[in-house]
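Incident log, entry 3
Record: Universal stress protein (141 residues)
Problem: checksum mismatch between cached and fresh output.
Input:
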Amino acid sequence: MADRILVPYDGSPRATDALELAFDEFPEATVIALYVIEVPNGRWAQIVGPELQLPVTERAQEYADDVLESATEIATERGRGLETNVVTGEPDHRIVAQAEGESVDLIVIGSHSQERLSRILLGSIAERVARRSPVPVLIAR
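Fresh output:
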């Protein structure tokens, strides 16, 4: 059974579905909502290492805090606690690194549900996380 669950959360309907699934299916688990402030590819050439945090604008940080506040509200409505964290970088890399750093047992991530496009859309963040993750990944569709 999963005791610590990481849910990448961006406020989208699919991310909300993933968060609610984590709460419903794992009522005793600690749930961590992670928001990744994506850094443009050109900026990555200036740094080395997935654990480095680039400075972000105050506006980006405020937006991330607002998104995670909505996740906290969902948790409160369900009578659950929620840990939150904001990181910067490439989303798939940061999600996997966070899973390792937080010693989570499971990642629950939202995905798009369109049949024809699912391979292309899933091929983005959710698929890359599933391929690279050191822990099981549950993809909510």
